[in-house]
Design a protein that fits this description.
4 strands, two-stranded antiparallel sheet, 15 helices, mainly alpha, 359 residues, Cytochrome Bc1 Complex, Chain C, 2 domains
């Protein structure tokens, strides 16, 4: 005699034992899952400063959620955009809160990405073999800044219209391809009805997709190479701890704190509305959002074409810095000139931002 095992069953001590419904359809190895959750994490990640990567991801999820809710009421046309934002702010139930959460999560996301890039730079964890991880992170920074720009452009207040005008002029000043890029951005030679539509498509479609794909590649690269160990004299930093539950609880605590901060800012400083966009009445004094203060001040100091070229060069150097740093260290082993250059660059950024803020 012999026993025949049917599909979807496996032999057991008591004969044939049927698998569960989900076990048949999702044959996940529990050993692999447990191994992944128990992955050792470097001790320095117990400090929030070294674990900034999860913060922008959480804020991005807040952006996506609140952004979807806002699109239910927003109308992307020049004659109705401002009124639709006003309706969201003043009439829609909890519309002011959703818009304020969207606005403040945008500011905090930009700030956290900047801080994360700084942390990786000054700890030197962008070096071989993590060059592509760094480049993905810088790309995330660029897309996040562009996100912020297209976001406040959709409100269609004075800052929106004239900020888009300045952005179009800066784009047009790009060598060789500036004219074509500006036309693509504006939907013509000047700011028009097409401009707002294109910003809307960028903000809710193209940029989120691009950011999601680069985030996935960034996380994949981090998982592939593991978290870089940072040189530290602290004994606790040289020890490791499990991802679950230790690191997961730390991240949950960070997310809870951010949620409290977001709600506090949204309630204490809700998003307001400035004057409606007026193409025939340029404002006497207007400034972009704080994260573009340094470029605005640099533009005033150097002029249009010089500002575009130098800012583009600085962005390219930042993007390819791991390879530039490697070339320097091949000629001068153990050189830490990157720290010196980083301090100069960061100090310049802060100085230009404060200068523009108080000017």
């Amino acid at each position: 005699m012999h026993t025949t095992n049917h599909a979807g069953s496996e032999p057991g001590a008591a004969g044939t034992v049927k698998k569960g419904f989900f076990a048949e359809r999702l044959p996940i190895r529990s050993e692999g899952l447990v191994e992944g959750l128990n992955e050792p994490i470097p001790g320095h990640l117990k400090r929030w400063w070294f674990a900034l990567g999860g913060t922008p991801l959480y804020l991005f999820l807040v952006q996506v959620t609140t952004g979807i809710l806002l699109t239910f009421y927003y109308v992307p046309s020049p004659d109705r955009a401002y009124d639709s934002v006003k309706r969201i702010t003043e009439e829609v139930t909890f519309g002011w809160w959703i818009r304020s959460m969207h606005r403040w999560s945008s500011h905090l996301m930009i700030a956290s990405v900047i801080l994360h890039v700084m942390r990786v730079y000054f700890t030197g964890t962008y070096r071989k073999p993590r060059e592509f991880t760094w480049m993905a992170g810088v790309a995330i920074l660029g897309i996040t800044l562009f996100f912020g720009f297209t976001g406040y452009s959709l409100v269609y207040e004075q800052l929106s219209y004239w900020g888009a005008t300045v952005a179009g002029n800066l784009t047009a000043a790009t060598p060789l391809i500036g004219k074509y890029l500006a036309s693509l951005l504006r939907g013509g030679d000047n700011i028009s009805d097409n401009t707002l539509t294109r910003f809307f498509v960028l903000h809710i479609g193209i940029l989120p997709t691009a950011l999601f794909l680069i985030l996935c590649s960034h996380i994949f690269l981090v998982r592939l190479h593991g978290v870089a160990q940072v040189d530290s004299k602290r004994a606790a930093d040289r020890k490791s701890f499990p991802f679950f539950p230790d690191h997961m609880l730390t991240e949950c605590l960070v997310f809870l704190t951010i949620t409290i901060v977001l709600n506090t800012l949204a309630c204490a400083f809700p998003a307001g509305l400035a004057e409606r966009a007026d193409p025939l009445n340029p404002p006497m004094h207007i400034k972009p959002e704080w994260y573009f203060f340094f470029t605005f001040r640099w533009l005033k100091l150097t002029g249009l074409e010089t500002a575009v070229v130098t800012t583009g060069m600085a962005g390219a150097v930042l993007f390819f810095w791991p390879f530039i740093d490697a070339a320097i260290r091949r000629k001068r082993p153990n050189s830490e000139i990157s720290i010196f250059l980083g301090i100069i660059g960061f100090a310049t950024l802060i100085a230009l931002t404060i200068w523009e803020a108080i000017a």
